[in-house]
Design brief:
Elements (H helix, E strand, L loop, with lengths): L1 E2 L3 E2 L4 H13 L4 E3 L5 E2 L2 H12 L4 E5 L1 H9 L8 E3 L3
Parallel strand pairs: 1-3, 2-4, 3-5, 5-6
Helix pairs in contact: 1-2
Length: about 90
């Protein structure tokens, strides 16, 4: 499982993207977003890239704020998010 860090922004986006791609290429297709607390739109670009490589990628425990951000950008239908229950 790919575990997203607490913070994903333009400062660490390249490293997060690279590390995730390594795991995806190794056969991992599930992402845990439970630690994600502070992020910008960089996370959407990262997940889009990961989904391009692994179309069946599932992102679980997504913070509601991330689902809202995806909705604002019109990307909801491209992601297979499983939100955290509040």
């Amino acid at each position: 499982m790919i575990t997203l860090p607490a913070i994903v922004n333009h400062q660490n986006a390249i490293a997060v993207r690279r590390d995730g791609l390594k795991q995806i290429k190794g056969g991992e297709h599930q992402v845990d977003g439970s630690a994600l607390t502070d992020f910008d739109s960089s996370i959407l670009a990262i997940i889009l890239e990961w989904r391009r490589v692994a179309p069946n990628l599932v992102v679980t425990k997504v913070p509601a704020k991330l689902s809202v951000l995806a909705r604002v950008y019109g990307l909801t239908e491209l992601f297979n998010f499983q939100e955290v229950s509040i």
